[in-house]
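Please check our next protein.
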Amino acid sequence: MKKMPYRSAGIAVAILALGWAQAPAQEAVRTRVMVRVIARDAKIIGSGVGGVLVRVSDAETGAILAEGEQAGSTGSTQLIMSSAHTREMSLYDTEGAAGYLAELVLTQPTVVNITALGPLGYSQAVRSASKQILLVPGGHIEGDGVVLELHGFIVEIMTPEPLTPVLSTVDIRARVRMMCGCPIEPGGLWNADDMTFIARLKSDGRVVAAAELEYTGETSIFVGKLLVPAQRPEGDVTLEVIVADPTHRNFGRHELPLGI
């Protein structure tokens, strides 16, 4: 008998080790898939900002195979943000770190779409990401798992409140954080000096006044003042705060209606 080449033999052993290769056709096999949803240039998106909705669906039929919320902590700052990373190094699989463990029942190799939507606690910041992957019955994905990344910032206009009448000036106070809820400040790990903070007053969608926001000295809090033009805004008047960090591919926005 012709001897199997070493490389081919290794592949065959790996396939048999999965178990499903020897299972009868159409036998259902439970398969675990860990999903971790992280913030771009930051940590895991956890319970502190409402968590993330994760859905695993069959790419061919659209059938939902598993769905749930990622919950837990944001993970280790040292590991995720500061440590030098090697190829096999685990970054996200630490005690209490947020994740969603999908329990699937597969009968055959299946291409799935894994979709994330969050952070659920802040509707103005919600973004989505998805990844397509082939799964095989019994081919568990654990540890760091399948990682999805959400870009953006959580921007909250704290004052004025919605429908506050517009006078000669509009005083603005906003809180800005990474999508994981991580803090922003000048010179910090998430450096406000790399970002632009702009407030805009809009009348029927047209910008009528704009000003930069400045750091207050309180972590993640920025303030500014808009001078309302002599010709009073009419129609739908809104206040918008935009935060931009093109270097790290993050942008955030919050808009609320004002009174006239």
Notes: The CA atoms of residues 197 and 243 lie 5 Å apart.
